[in-house]
UniProtKB/TrEMBL annotation:
Taxonomy of the source species: Bacteria, Pseudomonadati, Bacteroidota, Sphingobacteriia, Sphingobacteriales
A Pfam family the protein falls into: Scaffold
UniProt protein name: L,D-transpeptidase scaffold domain-containing protein
Domain L,D-transpeptidase scaffold, residue spans: 22-166
Organism: Mucilaginibacter dorajii
Length: 354
């Protein structure tokens, strides 16, 4: 069986989402079957299939997890103690299911279309250190298989609220995981995807969500929110910074939030009207008005000078256009028109098998 598994991984390498991860997974268990066992032996194959059936509840697309290969009738046949089935057939099904579960874990952790962590990068070097193969191995021996697998998700409140509402909308309310997502469900799905992007990589103490005009300060075990006022010119400038790899820092100066980012500030912001600049500053700052600025300044202050409070605080810009408040989906203005393309990508892009 070990030789058969090794041969089938190589044979189907181009059809797998994470071929190197699949290879590492089987190498680590001695190239043994992970899912296919006699029907008298308890394992998590059915749990995994059921989980993949309802990936829509996690804002993902069922079509991206080998649905044509992973059939319940095939699983029953392969596990039957009376049917005569070749080792090759068992190995192929086992490999498909392993690849689907590794893809599901990585999609929950990184997002399916994370611009900084595409599947190829994750497969080669493991992305930000998250180890989907180790997590899958641990889940296979766990009594709480689903909990172990889905622990890959972000832990932020906004994400968990969206996930719960998605579960209600696609599971309890409709009782149909395959119903085509309506507008509200699509909005929740694309924002869950973005929140996965933001959850990996370096964490920052402060975030500004552009569509909602809200600054969030992460303080110990709680979050404190501040409303911002942004001009049209400011929004144009922030679009240049959104998704940039250049570090951005935040300061609070005489009632204003000031963003610094080199070299993007110099390249894109200096000629925009409506943006006030501090004369003589080496990096031209972007000013945003903040309500309750004294409270924010006190919260973030590390250095206090007469009539000026300056804080060099690492900042992350986010683009979340929907969140759950009081059990209701609140939608924000899609300022930059990014929702449509991401929606189409999530629901219409399916891996082409070569």
């Amino acid at each position: 069986m070990a030789a058969v598994i090794d041969l089938q991984i190589k044979k189907h390498q181009k059809e797998l989402y994470y071929p190197l991860s699949v290879m590492r997974f089987y190498n680590s268990n001695g190239n043994k079957l992970a899912w296919i066992a006699p029907d008298t032996v308890k394992n998590h194959a059915t749990d995994a299939m059921l989980l993949l059936d309802c990936v829509l509840q996690y804002g993902l697309n069922h079509a991206n997890y080998h649905p044509g290969k992973l059939l319940y009738d095939e699983l029953r046949l392969l596990r039957s103690s009376t049917a005569s089935v070749s080792d090759e057939r068992k190995a192929v099904f086992d490999i498909w299911l392993t690849d689907a579960m590794l893809a599901f874990e990585n999609n929950l952790h990184y997002g399916r279309f994370n611009p900084n962590y595409p599947a190829g990068k994750i497969d080669v070097d493991g992305g930000d250190g998250f180890n989907s193969t180790a997590m899958l191995k641990a889940a296979l021996i766990s009594e709480e298989f689903t909990t172990a697998i889905t622990s890959a998700q972000p832990k932020s409140k906004i994400y968990l609220d969206l996930k719960r509402q998605m579960y209600l909308e696609t599971g309890l309310y409709t009782n149909d995981c395959y119903e085509f997502p309506q507008k509200g469900i699509q909005n929740m799905a694309i924002n869950m995807e973005r929140l996965r992007w933001y959850s990996v990589g370096e964490k920052t103490p402060v975030e500004i969500n552009i569509p909602s005009h809200i600054l969030t300060a992460h303080v110990q075990d709680s979050d404190i929110y501040f409303n911002l006022k942004m001009t049209k010119a400011t929004l144009i400038a922030l679009e240049k910074l959104l998704g940039s790899s250049a570090p951005i820092t935040l300061s609070v100066l005489r009632g204003q939030v000031i963003l610094y980012s080199l070299p993007l500030i110099n390249d894109h912001l200096k000629d925009l009207s409506g943006i006030s600049l501090i004369g003589g500053a080496k990096d031209l700052p972007l000013h945003i008005s903040v309500l309750k600025s004294k409270k924010l300044a006190k919260l973030l202050s590390r250095r206090d000078f007469p009539q000026i409070i300056v804080n060099d605080i690492p900042l992350k810009l986010t683009y979340i256009t929907g969140e759950i408040k009081g059990g209701v989906l609140i939608s924000y203005n899609d300022i930059y028109g990014l929702d449509r393309d991401l929606t189409q990508t999530l629901y219409q892009t399916v891996k082409k098998i070569k």
